[in-house]
Design brief:
Elements lengths: L1 E10 L6 E8 L4 E5 L6 H8 L7 E10 L2 E2 L5 H7 L4 E4 L3 H4 L6 H11 L5 H14 L5 H6 L7 H13 L5 E5 L7 H18 L2 E6 L2 H7 L2 E6 L2 E7 H6 L4 H8 L3 E2 L2 E2 L2
Parallel strand pairs: 3-8, 3-9, 6-7, 7-8
Antiparallel strand pairs: 1-2, 1-4, 4-5, 9-10, 11-12
Helix pairs in contact: 4-5, 5-7, 7-8
Length: 261
């Protein structure tokens, strides 16, 4: 289980960007963290991966991975966790790729850094994972530079790299943002398949309540760094506890008179 226990995070002497925040993610579960830009969602992902930038620090609470606190881990220990125990798909996976390296070269380098046996084994695994996320022409994709791929293809490359080592937990930050509707639907299907195939616990970070409701077992609602609502999908949609959640629900498109869920 990945757990946040009453966590408060701030940057320098600024007011907290996340305050008394708690969340739990089990293996095989999909949960969503929903909120507008600036609510603290991405801070949750960065903290969970040991990647708080600059002067960011956890001033209260604890983060546990399978029962063990991660707060005191050094970078070497984090490197053993990232990719294998927990992995992240950043908001713009394409921007996270090195523009002057082919997809194949950086994919293989990533796998070898995290323990793939040799270059050939890593290359074969990279091709397999690209096919698994819906890129059938994987061999050609390996030879391409990121700028030669569409946004949806780059996003799939990012997902493929994140799941290649079968992490127990996958954290995805706005995985469908800036994508066309067709590609969004394909990415959503891939996320559901990840849970089915690998039994990974998935944390979906999004501003889109409709997407969260469609995919998630549980939903957490974040506003200005504070958790204002949490519960099962049905509890959130049918019995919201905050006006902010109610406003989010009213913004969800309706199809045939029913909410899109």
């Amino acid at each position: 289980m990945l757990e946040f226990r009453n966590v408060t995070i701030q940057y320098g002497d600024e007011p907290p960007v996340l305050e008394h925040f708690s969340l739990s993610l089990e293996k095989g579960e999909i949960i969503s963290l929903v909120g507008e830009s600036g609510s603290g969602k991405s801070t949750v992902l960065n903290a969970a991966m040991g990647l708080l930038p600059g002067r960011g620090r956890i001033t209260d609470g604890d983060i546990l991975l399978d029962g063990n606190s991660v707060l005191a881990l050094d970078e070497k220990e984090w490197q053993r966790i990232r990719g294998r125990k927990a992995a992240a798909v950043p908001q713009d996976a394409g921007a996270a790729l090195d523009p002057i390296m082919t997809v194949g070269k950086q994919f293989v380098e990533y796998l070898r850094t995290h323990g793939a046996a040799d270059k050939k084994t890593a290359g074969n695994l990279a091709v397999k994972m690209l096919k698994d996320v819906g890129l059938p022409d994987a061999e050609n994709v390996m030879d391409n530079y990121p700028f030669q791929l569409s946004g949806g293809m780059r996003q799939r490359v990012g997902i493929a790299m994140a799941i290649a080592l079968h992490p127990d937990y996958l954290l995805a930050d706005e995985p469908t943002s800036a994508l066309d509707v067709t590609t969004q639907a394909q990415i959503v299907l891939r996320i559901r398949e990840l849970r089915r195939r690998y039994e990974a616990g998935i944390l979906l970070i999004t501003h889109n309540l409709a997407l969260a409701a469609y995919l998630s077992d549980h939903i957490y609602v974040l506003k200005e760094g504070r958790l204002v609502d949490s519960g099962t999908r049905e509890e959130i949609l049918n019995h919201p506890r905050s006006r902010y959640t109610e406003a989010l629900i009213r913004s969800v498109p309706c199809i045939g008179g029913d909410r899109y869920v």
